[in-house]
């Protein structure tokens, strides 16, 4: 399976504290909703078994970013969208930073091992 998704929020911007509770931020909810809509439009059925996930990130600009900070929002959204049952199925996970594009984007490839 291959998906072209928006650029995910950093894990640093994914959570918000509201009193004693920790919640997904507005930015995180917006990203998750967008991913769910894309996967629903593609009629994605969940994969079972061991998986390999390859990610290409095209940031929205040239600012410095930690490349590993995009995983949490991205993998959780794919799970909630039904690409796989649980992200514990992922046995191989690779990421590559590419040239920035306006607005940013993420290309995700998932295959069964």
> At CATH's second level, what is the architecture?
2-Layer Sandwich
- DSSP, total strands: 6
Oligomer: single chain
Helical stretch tally: 2
**Rg, nearest Å:** 14 Å
How far apart are the termini? Answer: 13 Å
Q: Could you tell me the mean pLDDT?
A: 92
Outline the low-pLDDT stretches: none
CATH homology superfamily = Holliday junction resolvase RusA
Shape, principal axes of CA atoms: globular
Q: What structural class do the secondary elements suggest?
A: alpha+beta
Please identify the top-level CATH class: Alpha Beta
H/E element sequence: EEEHEHEE
Q: Percent of residues in helical segments? A: 10-25%
Architecture overview:
The chain is 23% helix and 32% strand. With 113 residues, the chain is an alpha+beta fold. The protein has one domain: Holliday junction resolvase RusA (60s Ribosomal Protein L30, Chain: A, 2-Layer Sandwich), CATH 3.30.1330.70. The chain has a four-stranded mixed β-sheet, with helices on one face. The longest helix has 16 residues. The mean pLDDT is 92.
Key words describing this protein structure:
113 residues, 60s Ribosomal Protein L30, Chain: A, 32% strand, 6 strands, alpha+beta, two-stranded antiparallel ribbon
Describe the structure concisely.
The protein is α+β, with helices and mostly antiparallel strands and 113 residues long.
